[in-house]
Amino acid sequence: MNYFFVFQNKTFKEEHLGGFLWAPKADKNGHTKSHWTMMTNVKKGDVIIHSVHKAIVAISFAISDCYSSSRPDTNFNDWEEDGWRVDTEYRTFQKSILTSDYIDELRKLQPEKYAPFNSRGRGNTGYLFAANAEMFRLIIEETAKVQSSYSYSNQVLELLKTSSDKVLEELSEYSPGLIVESIKSADLKNESNYFKHKGTPKEKQSPIYSNGQKSYPRDRQTALNALAHAHYLCEVDKSHPTFIRKNSDKSYTEPHHLVPMAYSDNFNVSLDVEENIVSLCSNCHNQVHYGEGAEGILRKLYSERKEVLERVGIEVTLKELLQMYSYGLGFFEL
User: Fold this and answer.
1) Domains of the chain listed by start with CATH number
2) Which segments carry the region annotation Disordered (predicted)?
């Protein structure tokens, strides 16, 4: 397991909610920077320490190796289009420590090369830097001390016992990040071209708790069924361009829970049901998450799904749905 340290003063919200790290490959003059190319060293299972305005707000575990990816649509316009991306599973802290309070210790522990802090005790200008297990241990131990309860402190300390294999096992098939990745790379050669809605409510499963955060399980096959119901076309506009998946004759679209899973507590039935999952092209999916005009997309999808949602026990008004997105909770949910 390797360790990294990322400065996310401008982009933490988007990257946290989207579950990723992203950096450009080069600037507008074609020049590369070591704190960008450091991304290529990140492998599945590695640990990233997240700093926002000197506060250590989270750690995350890479759930993919670094790969090429175009620039995200929101809050990244200062950078060039081509970049590097790593998909990650974030574990945020209830309360944070400041690096400035531990800068002497961190500087002594940090690697000799490509380290996050300079000789003046300030963060180096850049994005991703090398870290190590000693820095990680210090940060976790000190973060545990400032939590508001014994339970939260223990959850933070449990991270010290984590190996890369254990991390990937704990994320499980129900992790939103892994579900997204498995669907993106799914081989659909044997998948049906059609799925019919059953129109019956689905029992809500028990929530999963991870590092003090609650989420509800998602099922990969349910998402794939929803894509098949839409014939692997974008439900905003069937003529929207897409592409054919590798090793399959199916068009590439992405599943999106219309009523976000983050609001599961508001309902007595599961939101992870085919009737609540829409098939979107990559552009519409990103627009719903990050772009202007998302409200128009939501209005259209709601009008087409309202009756179907009611049949499976998901009763929500248009106003309530728009409020769910405007407040940001679930705005970046699958």
Assistant:
1) 3-171 (3.10.590.10), 176-326 (no CATH)
2) 194-215
